[in-house]
Amino acid sequence: MDADNSHMDSLGEQTKLINMAVKHTRGNVEKARLMAAGQFSNVAVVKAKFSNEDPGVHGALSVFVNTEDHYIMNILTLMLSDKAKIERLRIFDAWKNFYGDLNGLIRDAGALNKGGYEFSTHLADSMVGYDIYDDVENGDLDGATQIFTEIIGKFPGAGKVKCQIEIEKTSSLAMELEGIPTEAYSGGEAESETTPLSAEDERVRAIEEGAEHVIQGKIMVSPVRGKYINDVKPGENIKVLLTNHDEVSKKVAKVLNAYTEEGEFLPIKGRVKEKVSMGKSGYIMYALVAKNVLAKIIEEENVKIEMEAMGAGEKAENKDTRLILYVSLLLGLVLFTLILLFALF
């Protein structure tokens, strides 16, 4: 039983990651699934150290480059006269460690940092001008080193520097999980015109455009009494647990008395509006949880989910339907008996 619970927890965590990743892939669920599994990278991290002994300038930087959309997501720069502090940094460390160490040195340096905003701006503007994106995306260390050396050397006071660079791949989801602030992509509309959507993505977009709000949720797994997602039909009621603490989600939960004093969500009823099969990637279900509010549920596996018990009205309606059916069968049986008797006599 513990193994089953552990498996369900793992599935829930993976679903949560996919929900987070979707916003980094512009709604492409297949890419989101791969990103959540660590199999799709859309960011290259440039880790660099540079030095010029003559004026006594030593520095380091990290640049997060979105290799899909060609824009800079985050820059950290440090320029000091203290060579020893820069030498503590190791560009071959994992990007998370390098970023953390560099960030710590920047905080400690304070006003002694000769780089800061001006150097970061110079670096960002120059990278765009040099069109460094292909070199970074392809991991071309020689080409990237040459360009960064030239860019840094043009900053006032830097002079002719020696530069050492390492490039590491990651994803914007990993950046979010690490709490790294990022610049949002501003050219999405133009890019989307050149990237045709699949039939499934088109359907997802049409469904979401028809709702006033789309919030994130997940199903409640019920291995014993549940119903397989594959068998769930639009119009059926399921139990939904909201996952994001945005204003719309909290408002819906509070109206339905499903928000605790501790700020936790309780399961609510959702009427399945649409179910989109994503092939091997599982399903996306949309459940109506309030007027013009859809809960978007991404589930990778055909698990059994908990259905919402029918309300009194629905039970009464079903009871009436069964009664009519029984009466019809009884009348049919009586009629058949009479016909049989007339035939015999």
3D structure, described in words:
- The protein has helices at 2-22, 29-36, 83-87, 95-109, 116-130, 133-137, 141-153, 172-177, 188-194, 199-209, 247-255, 312-344; strands at 43-52, 57-66, 71-80, 162-170, 213-219, 227-228, 237-242, 268-277, 283-290, 293-299, 304-305.
- With 345 residues, it is α+β, with helices and mostly antiparallel strands.
- It has two domains: 2-38 and 199-305, no CATH class; 43-170, no CATH class.
- The strands form three sheets. Strands 5-7-8-9-10 form a five-stranded mixed β-barrel. A four-stranded antiparallel sheet has the order 3-2-1-4, sandwiched between helices.
- The longest helix has 33 residues, at 312-344.
- The radius of gyration is 29 Å and the shape is elongated.
- Mean pLDDT is 84; it is low at 188-194 and 310-315.
Average pLDDT confidence is 84
Which structural class should the secondary elements be placed in?
Answer: alpha+beta
Helical percent range?
40-55%
Strand content: 15-25%
Strand order of the largest sheet: 5-7-8-9-10
Radius of gyration: 29 Å
Provide the low-confidence segments as ranges: 188-194, 310-315
What kind of assembly state do the chains in view correspond to? single chain
Shape: elongated
Strand tally, please?
A: 11
Quickly count the helices: 12
How many domains is the backbone divided into?
A: 2
